Write the structure tokens for this entry.
Amino acid sequence: MTFPLHDVLLLLKQEVQAYRVPVVDLIAVQTNDPFKILMATLLSARTKDEVTAAAVRRLFARAGTVEELSRLTTEELEQLIYPVGFYRNKARFLRKLPAVLQEQFNGAVPQDIDSLLTLPGVGRKTANLVLAVAFGKPAICVDTHVHRLMNIWGVVKTETPLQTEMALQQILPESSWAELNAILVAFGQGTCTPVRPHCDCCLIANQCPRNGVTPRAVKAVNKEMDMQQATDKKFISWNVNGVRASLKNGLLDVLRDFDADIVALQEIKAQPEQLPASLQNIDGYHAFWNPAKKKGYAGTAVLSKTAPLQIWYGLDEPRFDEEGRVLTLEFSDFYFINVYAPNAQPELKRLAFKQDFNLALFAYMDRLARSKSLVLCGDLNVAHKEIDLTNPKANVNNPGFSRQERAWMDSITEAGYIDTFRKFDASPGRYTWWSYRFNARAKNIGWRIDYFIVDESSDARVVDAAIHEEVAGSDHCPVSINFR
Ligand code: SF4
């Protein structure tokens, strides 16, 4: 069935009138000034709408014109726009903007894409949005929502926003280009969210092919359950395979969409001082970094909305701890352990090291679980059972599926620890890691090696567990539990 794009866009245009208006469009309604719209668009990238709106208010109060902006220093700009994402970079771009506008464009915002792309900090997405919103010109701003939705609907089959933009230019009439972004951003934020879209209440559910989508689970609702859910905490674990790379791939958007109480990251491959401010100061979170001594290698981090009582870095064993493998936060009624287990390496060259690590971790878990609930998560670099990888026969005794590594997982579960995902889902084909080679993710040739494990006495506290295959940005996907 061909997706009825034209009819759907008309329908959604009506639908999103009741939704929150994206911040740049809101600012455009309030001011016809292309210069202010350009500044707001620059600030809005990788930033929550509420944060952008507040920063824009502060900035406009001091710099409503090109000349006023030219009088502000970079430090003043940083203070005015903080905490928008990448505020230091954005302050530098704003600092350079007046000179470029005055010298090259007579102090006015240019009205063609090539000229806009010469402005500091302006990429294709920003340029198209300014053309469409400030000047009402035919331009398709393809951000994460437009790119995602067009692929979910099968309108395009593209890898990058630029490919999507080019494809849409061939498909859509020019008259619909300018408003496309506002409609799909509102719909993407309100209904078809990047994580667990609300297919159960979507008005185009019957037409949508839902390519690559895992909808949110809908449970029977009653008042008592509502009350209980209000106290549930959401925990996320994700091997990001380099936190700086994942930042470029939308990490902050993913964190915002999950809105988790605790986020555990593995394989951060960065020292805290190498991180941009947007990561060091994530709105609403306390951040704890446990990097490896060796630069660009391994490492763990935890973000928590609640300040922990105590933090422990490592297992008190230097050869493991210098790789930043374990990070523990203690809260009033549970311990939270984030683990990035070593890889046994080809020909099992590092198996002995990994087995020592596993034994030390097991003993550590047992020590902590004696006093309160224990939640352990992370990339354990082992698929436990045959159901947990696509090709078990071909991988017998390969790293991650060796007899010894699987035996350790057996010992954990036999001791009463619970692999929470399997508590809720016994189906095959549910994986958390796919090789970058051979188009493995698209073919779902994968391994389930990322876990949330709890101690036996905490079984009833785990009310949901999930794998979020739909979240891209790493060769692993996030896993989560809801913990009561
Ligand atoms: S049915 Fe689901 S995937 Fe399709 S548009 Fe609606 S929310 Fe998105």
